[in-house]
Amino acid sequence: MKKVEDPVADTERSRSEHNRRIEDPEHSRKVRVRIAPSPTGVPHIGNTRTVLFNWLFARKNKGKFVVRIEDTDRQRLQEGSLEKILEILDFLGLSWDEGPNVGGDFGPYIQSERKDLYQKYAKDLTQKGFAYEDEGAIRLKVEKGKSWSWNDLIHGEISFKSDVIEDFVILKSDGFPTYHLGVVVDDHLMEITDVLRGDEWISSTPKHLMLYEALGWQPPKFAHLPVIVGPDKSKLSKRHGAKSILDYKEEGYLPQALINFMVLLGWSPPPEVARRNIGEKEKELFTLEELTKIFSIDRVNTTSPVFNIEKLNWFNKKYLQMLSLPDLIGKIKDFSSRAIRTDDRQLSQIVNLVRDRMTTLTDFDKYASIFFEKGSEKPPGKEKVENAQKALQSITNWNEKAITQTLDKWIQENNLSAGDFKNTLRLSVFADNTPPIYQSLAVLSKEETLKRIEAALK
Ligand code: GLU
Question: End-to-end distance of the chain based on CA atoms, in angstroms?
Fold first, then answer.
């Protein structure tokens, strides 16, 4: 873990590092980005998209990805959210280079451990006349008649008139910094080069620029990601499916589908990649590894992306289809106690039959249930069922090939309508929709099939 406890030494080192970068723009920029979640709840998928963009930006530029926890709003802390935030990163495979240790030791990467530091800078600013005390808190003086601007990596030039900004609190009376002071001090000391965050922080950025200037520091570059909206163009909410990644995990979505879905919320692949010679939709399938090569901030749109859950479902279906059978079975077992209890051979057969219908891993139980118990549709007339019973009894080798041969012959010899006969089999054995009926029968044992027919006759 990088040492950041010594603010003065770090500041000096950081300043010269910054200057070197400024003087020598050709020198490969040592990219350092961070995410700075507040443990005030479990972030929803929109916030996690910001995490993904930061991570990809770091990996693409061979830089560092830092995780820092901003827990200075003591009133809004929510027990357990820290662990959940890290669990999300872990599930998605977004590893960090600096930040909390796996064991949950946050070291200097949590702001409550760095209070002295912010207090020191707040005091410095007060002594230099940039800030003043007010009812136990410290406020930064905002000079009127100035304009603050930056060249946003996504939106281009953005500027604010200082007249619309009031003197703002940087250190609260409880001794904790506000977000503004905490974020500026930490981004500087942690040598963050690029701040990628949601649009909702745009109005905070001029305040941060004021702090950078007052502290004599070079600000990082800023990129504000357009906020995701629901299909009705209103701010994304729970109603639109804006749950956390952990909710999606529980519902049986795969990390690769979530990654693929999130990256296309506001980013589009370069034209040469998008023209890959495959199906219209397939050209949007990207692995995390591929994304680390092709991601770039200049292909992030300036308009708000629309959240479309159907798209996530499509990706999940696709990635489920792409899994190898053993991998898929392993994942299904995490969701289905029934699958655990089924012997491997039969389970493979069932999975093979139902996998193309599954959208999420939890769908397994839904589509596989007919192999464990009958559905609720009524059997046809007794005569038809008895005829089917005889046909099934005559099958000697119980496998798909023999079942097909025997039953097709049976249909012919008895002059039956194939459709009607198969429907009788379906209703009397499964009493529900099935994959192709002969294949479905082959998954059940002959004994179980005849038992079910017996029951249909009662
Ligand atoms: N603590 C802020 C949050 O909860 C960080 C915002 C930023 O990235 O500057 O998202």
Answer: 71
pLDDT value of residue 277: 64
Query: Among the atoms of ligand 1, which is closest to the Cα of residue 50?
Result: 8
Handedness of CA 111, 115, 121, 127 (dihedral sign): positive
Instruction: State the Cα–Cα distance between residues 347 and 370, nearest whole angstrom.
Output: 13
Most informative mutation of 42, 197, 200, 225 for ligand 1 (most atoms within 8 A of CB): 197
Q: Which of 238, 283, 382, 451 is catalytic?
A: 238
Residue from 32, 33, 34, 38 whose mutation best tests the ligand 1 pocket (most atoms within 8 A of CB): 38
Residues in Cβ contact with 402 at an 8 Å cutoff, skipping those fewer than 6 apart:
395, 396
Give residue 361's pLDDT: 98
What is the mean pLDDT, run by run of 10 residues, along the chain of 458 residues? 40 42 51 97 94 98 97 94 95 96 85 96 98 98 97 97 97 97 98 97 98 98 95 86 93 98 95 74 87 96 94 97 98 97 96 97 97 95 97 96 98 97 98 96 96 95
Residue with the nearest Cα to atom 8 of ligand 1? 197
**What is the rounded distance in angstroms from the CA atom of residue 317 to the CA atom of residue 308?**
15
Give residues (CB < 6 A) around ligand 1: 36-38, 70, 179, 183, 197, 201
Contact predicate 358/320, CB 8 Å: yes
Cβ atoms < 10 Å from Cβ of 310: 8
The H-or-E segment that residue 169 falls in is strand 168-171
- Report yes or no: 346 and 442 within 8 Å, Cβ to Cβ: no
d(CA 190, CA 66): 9
> 3-state DSSP call for residue 157?
strand
Q: What is the H or E stretch that residue 187 is in?
A: helix 179-189
Cα Rg for the chain, rounded, in angstroms? 30
Instruction: Pull the structure tokens for residue 167.
Output: 């003197």
Ligand 1, atom 6: closest residue by C-alpha: 36
Active-site annotation holds for 123: no
**Partners of 133 in beta bridges:** 138
- Structural domains of the chain sorted by starting position, each given as residue range(s) with its CATH number in brackets: 2-225 (3.40.50.620), 374-457 (1.10.10.350)
Close Cβ partners of 376 (under 8 Å, ≥ 6 residues apart): 431, 432
Report the nearest-CA residue for atom 5 of ligand 1: 36
Q: Count of residues for the chain? A: 458
Cβ 385 vs Cβ 457: under 8 Å: yes
Pocket test for ligand 1, best of 88, 179, 196, 204 (most atoms within 8 A of CB): 179
